[in-house]
Write a structure and sequence with these properties.
With 107 residues, the protein is of the alpha/beta class. The protein is 30% helix and 24% strand. It contains three helices and five strands. Helix 3 links the parallel strand 4 and strand 5. Helix 1 runs parallel beside helix 2. The longest helix is centred in the middle third of the chain and has 13 residues.
């Protein structure tokens, strides 16, 4: 069974909205993820950060949601688990958003 998705919306030190996700993002919870992205952007074009640093699996709908969000805001910053950097690079998300690898966890 996949870990449940948990989403938190907060503000970074500079006031930038930040969506922090843990678990997995797939068909069963994609609507919840999209609502969190839309809530964080609050209908304006201000930049947002999406922290997926603990997410090790996301399906194509989640990637599409990130592309859609990049079209809605003036700067999408996505922090991802090192396992997902290649997936998001191959998808081309790095061409419309800043995709950053989260620091590797220390042993």
């Amino acid at each position: 069974m996949a870990p449940p998705l948990t989403l938190n919306i907060e503000r970074g030190p500079d006031g930038t909205p930040r969506v922090i996700a843990t678990g997995e993002i797939d068909l069963s919870n994609i609507d919840q993820f999209i609502r969190a992205l839309d809530t964080a952007s609050a209908g304006n074009r201000k930049p947002i950060t999406v922290d997926l640093s603990t997410i090790k699996y996301l399906d194509s709908r989640a990637i599409n949601a990130l592309f859609d969000q990049a079209d809605k805001v003036d700067g999408l910053h996505v922090i991802v688990h090192p396992l997902l950097v290649r997936v998001l690079t191959i998808s081309g998300l790095n061409k419309v958003a800043t995709v950053e690898s989260a620091p590797a966890a220390s042993p």
